[in-house]
Amino acid sequence: MNRQEFFSLIDKWMNGSASKEEIQSLMNYYHSFKSTTEWDEAQLGAKSLLEAEMEQQLLLRIRTAEPGTAPVKRVWWTKIAAAAAVLLVLAAAGWWYFQRPPEPMAVHSQQQLVATKAGEHKKIQLPDSTIVWLSPASRLEYTAAFGKGSRELTLNGEAFFEVATDAAQPFIIHSGRVDTRVLGTSFNIRAFDAQPDVAVTVLTGKVAVGNADSAVHVSPSQRAVFSKATGKITKEDGVATGNLLSRREGILKYDRAGLREVAAELGYYYNVKIEITGDISNCFYFGEFNTNGTLEKALRQLCLSLNATLEHNGTTYIIRKDKEC
C-alpha cells in the first residue's frame, strides 16, 4: 500500500464507510511502520504515547457504556486495545492529512504554439478575441493563461494583428530583442530570423516599439524599424499601408521595388535562399505575388517580367540576369 492509498482509506474510515478488510489493511500498514523510519513523530506524535492515550479513551468508553450493553469478553481485550491504538494512530494521521498545507495548484504555463509551413497562411483567434493573420514560415507562442491577467506572446516571422481593446491588459508581442506594446489597434510585424531588421507598421491605433535601450511610439502610416546590427530603432513617416490588408491574405504587392528586396521577402515566406547574379542596380519590380501558391510559380513570374532565367540547386534558387534592365 502506498501513501495515496493509505490516506484514501483514512478518508473512508473517518466517514464510517471502511469495511473490516480495509480496517485490517490499515492496521497492517501501521504495524509495518515499526521497522521503518517512515513515521514522522514531529507531525504525528510518539507511537507509545498515542497508544497509551487510546487505551485510556477506550477504558473511559467501556465505563460509560450504556446499560444493557453486552459485556466484552476478556479474550478480545488485547485485540480491541491493539485495534483501538491503531485507530488513534490513524486519527492522528488523518488530522495531519487534513491539516497539511494544500499542494499548489498547477500553473497554466503550457505553451500554445501556432506555426505555418513555407507558403502556408493561417488566420487564428486568440482567447481575448484578437485576430491574427500568420504569414508563411512563422511561429506564434503564448501560454494557456493568455488573457487571464496578461496578454503576452512571442512572434518569430510575420503576422498582422487586429488587437481586441482591453485597457486593463496591454497586448505585448516579443520579437527577438524588440517588444511591441498596444491596447487596441491593427498593425503588421515582420520579424523573421533571417532578415536584418524587425519592422512594425501601424494601420490603425498606436503602439510602442522598444527594447532595453529605447522606445518609439508609432501611429498610423508610420513604421518602426529595429536594426539587429546596431540595436537602434528608427521611425519612418508616410508609409503606404494600403497593401497591409491584402498582405495578410498572402498577396504581396510591389511598386518599383528593388529586385533583391523582392527576392529576400519571397525567401522569408518560403524558407529558402534566393540568389541573384548579374547587374540589377537598375532593376525594379512592379506587380504582385499570391504566396498561397508555389514558390516556383512566383519565381517564374518574376523572371519572366525581368527577362531573367531561373536555376534550382538543392535548397537554393538562382536568378540569372545576363542583360541590363
TrEMBL record:
UniProt entry tagged with the keyword Transmembrane helix: yes
Ranges of residues in domain Protein FecR C-terminal: 252-319
Residues passing through the membrane, by range: 80-98
This protein's UniProt keywords: Membrane, Transmembrane, Transmembrane helix
Annotated ranges, domain FecR protein: 114-207
GO molecular function, one term: sigma factor antagonist activity
Pfam family, one: FecR_C
Keyword Membrane recorded: yes
Name listed for the protein in its UniProt record: FecR family protein
Organism: Chitinophaga ginsengisegetis
